[in-house]
Inverse folding.
């Protein structure tokens, strides 16, 4: 018959979880993404782009225009600002660039002009290379995003 000390030790070992069974946190932060050096540059976004985009049914799209992106100083620091030229007033795009400097995302808005409902919403652009941007935009009040592509020579 095992001693009382041996029984207590067996119960303590059986009740404690094995260290190998406890999942460890992912490397690279809470998302599990490795936080290595950036893979792109903000300069890939800067400049003038030939922009083509889809729109809601009945809008006559695919549409085209120009997207001009600049690096500007603001009260909160430097950031990208874009001007999306289209029918009516141009929309202004503002938002941060991702850590890896390959994604620019934020909000856009047309100024109040003669239209009853100026367009505003959110956008996302991915720098595929120094000559191609792809992504989507979504107007406020809608659930469906529309695609857009930008190219330059």
């Amino acid at each position: 018959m095992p001693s009382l000390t041996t029984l207590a030790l067996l119960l303590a070992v059986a009740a404690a979880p094995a260290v190998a069974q406890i999942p460890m946190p992912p490397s690279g932060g809470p998302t599990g993404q490795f936080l290595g050096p950036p893979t792109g540059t903000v300069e890939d976004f800067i400049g003038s782009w030939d922009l083509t985009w889809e729109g809601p049914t009945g809008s006559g799209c695919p549409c085209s225009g120009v997207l001009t992106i600049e690096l500007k100083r603001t009260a909160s620091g430097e950031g990208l600002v874009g001007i999306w030229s289209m029918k009516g007033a141009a929309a202004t795009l503002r938002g941060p660039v991702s850590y890896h400097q390959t994604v620019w995302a934020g909000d856009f808005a047309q100024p109040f002009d003669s239209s009853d409902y100026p367009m505003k919403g959110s956008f996302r652009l991915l720098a595929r290379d120094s000559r191609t941007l792809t992504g989507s935009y979504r107007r406020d009040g809608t659930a469906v995003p529309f695609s857009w592509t930008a190219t330059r020579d």
Remarks:
- The domain at 42-151 is CATH 2.40.128 (Lipocalin).
